[in-house]
Amino acid sequence: MQIVAPAGNNSGLIASINGGADAVYLGMPNFGARAKAENFDEQSLLSAIELAHLYGVKVFVTLNTLIKDGEIKSAIDAAKLAYSLGADAAIVQDIRFIKQLKQALPDFALHASTQMGIHNADGARVLLDLGIARAVLARETLPQDIIEIKQTGIEIEYFVQGALCVSFSGNCYFSSLASSYSGNRGKCMQLCRKPYYFNGKRGYFLSAKDLCLFDKLDYLAELGVDAIKIEGRMRSDEYAYTAVSVYKNKSVNAKNALKSVFNRGDYCDGYLSDGAPFNVIYPKIQGNIGIKVGKITSVNGNYISVKGFTPHKNDGFKVVRAGEEVCGATVNGDKIVCDGRCKPGDELRKTFDGSLSEKVKSVKRNIDMWVDIKLSCGEQPTANVTLPDKSIITVSGDFVVDQARTRGITRDDVVRVFNKTSDFPFTPNITVDIKDELFAQIAALNEFRRKVYKTAKQAILNGYTIKRSSLSYVGLRYNKFTGSGKILMVESENQLTAEILSKVDYVVFNPSNYEDFVIPDIDKPILLNLPITMRGDDREIILKAVNNPKVYGVVSNNLYSLSLTDKPILLGTGHNIIGECEYPHVTSIEADSASNGFTYVYGYAPVMTLCHCPYGKCVNCSGKDELIDENGRTFALRRYKAAHCYWQLLNCVPSYQDKPKTTNLFFDCTTSDCNKILAVLRFDYNGNYTRGNMNKVLK
Q1: Hey, how many other C-beta atoms are within 10 angstroms of the C-beta on 199?
Q2: Cβ(498)–Cβ(522) below 8 Å
Q3: What does the alpha-carbon distance between residue 486 and residue 671 come to, in Å, rounded to a whole number?
Q4: Residues 6+ apart with CB under 8 A from 30
Q5: CB neighbours of 570 closer than 8 A, spacing ≥ 6?
Q6: How, if at all, do strands 155-162 and 134-136 pair?
Q7: Euclidean distance between the first and final Cα of the chain, in Å?
Q8: Pairing relationship of beta strands 645-650 and 634-641 according to DSSP bridges
Q9: Is the pLDDT of residue 406 over 80?
Q10: Rounded Cα–Cα distance for residues 565 and 558 (Å)
Q11: 603 vs 66, 212, 676, CA distance in Å?
């Protein structure tokens, strides 16, 4: 399987290459999902692509944010630049941008970002219609779905290491609605890493453990995964190098090596095992807990020690007691100094390995080549260079070799000169053929060496083949919803009255249980709201509900639904459309301007969809609960079920647009009673609310 590694900056790129990456993914100054990374401008991108290609490493450029109408030209220009500089593929998310990109650069290979939420074969088939060659699957994708996705013919890339977004496939609006800084535009505020109160306890109840699937590599290969991906463009060079080298070499001490560079929550294996939904969150510590050194045996003021352990001068530590962080610690001389109150028996965990840092700075991934040098009197020197692909080039020097008058040059002299490769990442195997006693200036030999290696470097780059795409853009093929007017979404028939029905044109049902939901008889066209998730055995249950003859059409929140039914489809907020769009849609809840779609007028917007169980075990729950932040704001938890349980985290206040600029309106009253619904439909709502980003700028 190909190893796809992170490169947040040039040193991170080098670390990933030296670790043994087969491909790297990196961002440009804009339109990448890690805006806070250093990223690459035009010149540094050119250098990065050249360096990677020299090693045969592919470069995937991230253009995977939501893109505003006024930014699309700039995004296309960025893609054209990456294409012209030799990028192997672009990673994308925005369906509006994808169409224009395929028109501008039809043979540029495209990979679907994990933020597109592809997690089943139905969604994969839609990608192929968009001309997309590879899907970076949602981390929540189940094994049985990976097998079926592979059967569609699309390439599969799967995350195996690094941070987990607690919200399904990164489809999170929490940061955006709280601050205007959108995770879908690479500027997440990490609100999931903050403490909350849940069932009377304080903890990091939205903070997911790091993913580590080292033990599942053979299993992933059996499922059909083509490439494994390591998250971490914001992490250290030590992390990038270690993670890549561990997965590349299948290290025996893999877990310890990985924990020594970054470890949140002692890892989980995502959703590849049966108990996965109960093992995702680590509520006690939200950051790196490193690797356990041992228990503190002595404390002298702020100086602590662990029997038998000697720290490196650059090591970093955390002290943990009963699973919770007590303080940090550093090294002063040969002693460990803590910055809080420790006591014997506390656990010391190393969070930064100073010796590893030194190793990473010194290691170098070399390129083997064979250099056969011939020097003959009265002739220019020549070098036959056998490149890594076994092709041979011949390079001649720019001087003539003379007969030696005193001491001649030796084979060792020439070897010494050609072993100087500081400007080039080559490991040369050198043979020298010298006829008679010859003379050549060392300066001339040095210049010859530089010419040989420069020519060899260019030959390797010229021999690198960029695999362009043969997939054409067909577009989204489905039966488009053509209705207009007011659409009301509710959970059940109990929320409807004759007066309410008289004020709307369509009713959308958003069930809490898709298997048991009974479609009622009402005198309005009925649409079924399809969840953002459809994994494994969910499909049979959801498809049965969709095929109910009482259902006129569906509201889609993920691409899978476009190939699931021939009934009319309205693209819902899950598609996160923030601007003008040719497809009938509900404008995103994080948009900062109205579009030609249905305006999301009202609703406790689901800022996250959770595939794990917030209780950590099945407790026969009511399907309703809440999280409370440290400011006292309450965020409702709403469960919905198909074959699997899912939870939505609802915003603490509803989104509300009391003066919509369109006549096509969408009212999300899933959690509202009849009185609230009537007030909202009359534009007479007077409670607390947010306008989202409509009075701000989506960043």
Answers
A1: 12
A2: no
A3: 18
A4: 71, 74, 75, 78
A5: 481, 483, 487, 527, 553, 554, 555, 556, 584, 585, 586, 598
A6: parallel
A7: 36
A8: antiparallel
A9: no
A10: 13
A11: 22, 37, 11
Return all residues near 285 (Cβ < 8 A) that are at least 6 apart: 204, 264, 265, 318, 320, 323, 324, 325
Reduce the DSSP state of residue 670 to 3 states and report it.
coil
d(CA 196, CA 198): 6
Q: For the whole model, what pTM was predicted?
A: 0.94
DSSP class of residue 556 equals E
Phi-psi domain of 395 (left: phi exceeds 0; alpha: psi -120 through 50; beta: other) = beta
| Positions of E strands within 425-471 | 426-434, 438-439
Token output for 412: 């060792």
Tens-place pLDDT, residues 297-326: 999 999 999 999 999 999 999 999 998 999
CA 681, chain centre distance (Å):
39
Q: What is the pLDDT of residues 502-547, one digit of tens each?
A: 999 999 999 999 999 999 999 999 999 999 999 999 999 999 999 9
User: 149 with 121: CB under 8 angstroms?
Assistant: yes
Is the Cβ–Cβ distance between 187 and 181 less than 8 Å? Answer: yes
Write out the two tokens for 305.
Answer: 């020690």
Contact 609, 637 (CB under 8 A): no
Question: Which are the contacts of 290, defined by CB distance < 8 A and separation ≥ 6?
Answer: 259, 260, 262, 263, 317, 318, 349, 350, 351, 352
Neighbours of 364 (CB within 10 A): 11
Contacts of 390 (CB under 8 A, 6+ apart): none
Whether the CB-CB separation of 90 and 110 falls below 8 Å is answered with yes
Bridge partners, 556 (sequence order): 571
Please report the sign of the dihedral spanned by the C-alpha atoms of residue 277, residue 283, residue 284, residue 289: positive
pLDDT tens for residues 326-365?
999 999 988 999 999 999 999 999 999 988 888 888 888 9
Q: Which two tokens stand for residue 352?
A: 């930064």
